[in-house]
Write a structure and sequence with these properties.
Length: about 240
């Protein structure tokens, strides 16, 4: 379903037109519905990780390291970091372990230092804070490849629609096509809450049914992975 079809479907559900349901309001609600759904899908997806099909790049960010520098920021919109990797001087990628200062009794700067001097070399851990990743210990050119030596794999939010894309009318939502109607129902409900209250309960019911089907679909997508039935031990007390 293209954005043109989707917008018409939403207005049909509401008995609305471009005057009563303006394009800017509709765009805002469609994008809000998409971001909500993508957030839920990411929490439900199986071993096959979800990514909006409209993106033309993979959800991987690379960056150049600075010798002795611990903190690195990147501009990509992401919901969660999957892995952080460092390339050593031999060109091998090393997966770092996450570490959380709030779960540690000792300051990381203190634990990763000797006689007050911060240890540098090849990172083994990372800490995330907003759009910043801190590497511990800080990388140095002796041990790591600096140029494009940092790789961050992440989960990102929906590739939302722009006003220009609505005008063009050909872009489709980046979720599985059977659930495009879910975006329509979610975008119609706020309008109906104001002007068509008798339809709200029905559309909410339809949205809940479609959402359940969608989450079931995304949580079991690793169909090429062989399922093995095993016996569960029963404990008798």
């Amino acid at each position: 379903m293209t954005i043109l079809d989707l917008n018409q479907e939403i207005r049909d559900l509401c008995d609305a037109d471009t005057t009563s349901y303006p394009a800017a309001t509709l765009l805002r609600r469609v994008n809000n519905a998409l971001e909500i759904l993508v957030g839920k899908i990411i929490n439900a997806d199986g071993t096959w990780q979800f990514d909006d099909t409209n993106y033309t790049t993979t959800p991987v960010g690379t960056g150049t390291l600075v010798s002795g520098q611990s903190s690195y920021s990147f501009a990509d919109e992401f919901l969660d970091i999957e892995t952080v990797k460092i390339k050593d001087v031999n060109g091998n990628w090393i997966i770092l372990s996450p570490i959380d200062q709030s779960q540690d009794d000792e300051a990381l700067e203190q634990r990763l230092s000797v006689s007050g001097v911060t240890i540098t070399g090849i990172p083994t851990h990372y800490e995330k804070n907003g759009d910043t990743v801190r590497l511990y210990p800080a990388p140095t050119a002796t041990y790591v490849t600096l140029t494009n030596g940092l790789k961050v794999e992440f989960k990102r939010t929906a590739d939302i629609f722009t006003a220009a894309q609505v005008t063009t009318g050909t872009k489709i939502p980046g979720i599985a096509s059977p659930y495009h109607m879910l975006v329509a129902y979610m975008s119609a409900i706020p309008y109906c809450m104001s002007y068509k209250k008798d339809r709200v309960a029905l559309y909410e019911k339809k949205a809940m049914e479609l959402e359940k089907d969608m989450l079931d679909f995304y949580s079991s997508r690793e169909k090429d992975k062989r399922k093995i039935m095993t016996m569960k031990q029963i404990s008798h007390i």
